[in-house]
Specification:
- Chains A, B: Residues 8-68 form the HTH tetR-type domain.
- The structure is a homodimer of 201-residue chains.
- Chain A folds into 2 domains: 1-75, Homeodomain-like (Arc Repressor Mutant, subunit A); 77-201, Tetracycline Repressor, domain 2.
- Chain A is built from 10 helices and no strands.
- The first copy, chain A, has helices at 7-25, 32-38, 43-49, 53-74, 81-90, 97-112, 117-120, 123-143, 153-173, 180-194.
- In chain A, helix 1 packs across helix 2 (32-38), helix 5 (81-90) packs antiparallel against helix 8 (123-143) and helix 9 runs antiparallel to helix 10.
- Chain A binds chain B through residues 25-29, 104, 107-108, 110-115, 123-124, 127-128, 131, 152, 155, 158-159, 161-170, 172-174, 177-178, 182, 185-186, 189-190, 193, and chain B through 25-29, 104, 107-108, 110-115, 123-124, 127-128, 131, 152, 155, 158-159, 161-170, 172-174, 177-178, 182, 185-186, 189-190, 193.
- The structure holds a DNA duplex (30 and 30 nucleotides).
Chain lengths: 201, 201
DNA sequence: CTTTTATTAACACAGTGTGTTATTATAATT
DNA sequence: AATTATAATAACACACTGTGTTAATAAAAG
């Protein structure tokens, strides 16, 4: 009976409009009204697709995380497991302009999740990503027998996750000190210290 | 000629009022009007001491950083340099409720500094803290001859700073996974890996 | 007692997120 | 083809926000 429009498609187009604003002017400029205008609709119309702002922001993050996943899946990783791990970890760190924006939005949302009720529910889901990926990476290295025997696997997982997110935030806030090259260097250095000397080329 | 009031004292009392709100309800609830009421004055009066909200927030951070410094200066550090370094680093990480609040406000402000013009100027000053402290700690360990010969001092500084801030943010966002004990464990573990085996007790 | 000026209060303004209500448009039913 | 049900949209109202401006108050100095 009703006129039918592709709900999900419209949400995506809204997300893209919002992203354009965020890219240029930051998260807090992406108000519902501004995004609505950018997306070519009224604020009330937008509210029909996202009943709350946090909902919109969450969708945006999910959407762009998906995009990122697709990107990394289509990527071909190195044969050398150590190098492959390094490449995966580099995906988590803002080494180019696009990832910089994604990362800053990400951290802002993550910190907002401490006080916003809407975001609170998704907090763990949001913040778990790096931790799980770090775990996987360590496990891969363990399976491949590359890791030095003296390491504590459990602690290495926690350490790697923290290091990556620390680098992520430093690269964001102090790009002069933590340049993409520097970040890469630190990650490589860290991985090297985990390994048997004999495994290094 | 004019009535005289202690400007700085009033700013501090405002800062404390704001801090009370932030502690209970988060940064974004600390609006000028709310803080003014909490401090027992009108919004216009508050504006006389802080002409902008960012200015107020910056003062609050400075104020509480000073308090933190005083606290750590009055503290007595261990004789064992490795242990002393560990204790200093633990000061940077949200292992108790008070530091949790300080840290979350800190990160929120730091990330806002990416888009807010007022905060932008203070960005480096704000974000440099951990980096410089990490540098000092590594240098102390170098001077004491505790560090293993195989390490790259420069990279270790960057790595430590990133690790500490990463732990800081993880302890904030995932206190279930990164409990105070876990954080301590990771820091200790990291320091141990930097050292000569012979130096460890 | 008057003058001077720091301090305070009271608004106005544009912007925000969030709701509610009315209107439009369209697919299905009669 | 006319009617109807309802998704989609628009247009408000509301209580906030930060930021200004402008007038009133209070107290120290002449």
């Amino acid at each position: 009976m009703p006129r039918i429009v592709n709900h999900e498609k419209k949400r995506k187009s809204i997300a893209e409009a919002a992203w354009n604003i965020i890219k240029k002017e930051g998260t807090e400029k992406a108000s519902i009204r501004r995004v609505a205008i950018e997306a070519g609709m009224s604020a009330g119309a937008l509210r029909h697709y996202f009943s709350t702002k946090d909902e919109m922001l969450l969708f945006i993050m999910d959407y762009y995380l998906e995009e990122g996943k697709k990107r990394s899946q289509s990527k071909s990783w190195s044969e050398n497991p150590l190098q492959a791990v390094e490449e995966v970890l580099l995906e988590l760190v803002p080494i180019d302009e696009e990832k910089k924006i994604e990362t800053s939005v990400w951290w802002i949302l993550a910190l907002q999740s401490l006080t916003s009720d809407t975001l609170k529910e998704k907090k763990d889901e949001m913040t778990n990503g790096t931790y799980e990926l770090a775990n996987s990476m360590i496990e891969i290295l363990v399976l491949k027998g590359i890791l030095s025997d003296s390491i504590n696997v459990k602690l290495e997982k926690s350490r790697l996750a923290a290091l990556i997110d620390g680098l992520s935030i430093h690269a964001l806030l102090r790009p002069d000190v933590y340049s993409p090259e520097k970040v890469k260097e630190v990650i490589r250095y860290h991985l090297e210290t985990l390994c048997n000397e004999s495994q290094l080329n």
